[in-house]
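Entry type: protein chain
Record version: 2
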Amino acid sequence: MIAELKGFLLANNIEQVVANDNAVIFRKGGLSFLFQHSTDDPYYFRLSLPKVALAKNIANVDINDLEVQYKVMKITIVDGDVWIVAEQFVYCRENLSSLFTRLITLLEEVLKALKEKLQASTNVKDETE
């Protein structure tokens, strides 16, 4: 799966930053993405936008509707930081490029929506003070 992602990055002129046998960090549009794959399960991978916000900043933001709207995405907290994560099981390697493109686009959309929610909650808080 790592080889397929590296081929996708190369074909799409996306900067690969770090890679090993189980993970690849790449940059696209000013964002750093983390791709993780384990040889324990050759059908599973995770694509994340790590550290997109501090957990304390989303305490008053309802993120459930984002997870409902973007069913494949999870918004989670790792060591006090907010991560947006997509997990997939892939049993066929055909059209992986389309899947990678779609997941990257969804991660970007969820990040945009989360930022809008954060901005709206900040504006509401400011108006009540």
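Comment: The chain has three helices and six strands.
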